[in-house]
Design a protein that fits this description.
Strand order of the largest sheet: 1-2-3-4-5
Shape: globular
Distance between the termini: 26 Å
Order of helices and strands: EHEEEE
Strand content: over 45%
Largest sheet: 5 strands, antiparallel
Number of strands: 5
Number of helices: 1
Helix content: 10-25%
Length: 71
């Protein structure tokens, strides 16, 4: 995998996140979305990332919460 891209991350508007991701953020009172990204992996998988209050929240293509990490 030398020199191969494993994923492409593209900044998007927070309104472009899946509806379920917005619902999760609202339900858990995570806060305002500071930044959002769409990550396309070489295997065809799409993941969305939302940065909220110093946390990066990750969602699958349908908006289902996957995990979070401190940014």
């Amino acid at each position: 995998a030398k020199g191969e891209k494993l994923e492409v991350e593209k900044e998007i508007k927070s309104t472009q996140l899946p509806a379920a991701a917005h619902q999760y953020i609202t339900k858990h009172k995570s806060g305002a979305i500071k930044e959002a990204s769409k990550i396309e992996k070489t295997n065809g998988e799409t993941i969305y990332e939302a940065e909220v209050k110093g946390q990066e929240l990750y969602f699958d293509a349908s908006g289902k919460f996957l995990h979070s990490k401190k940014s």
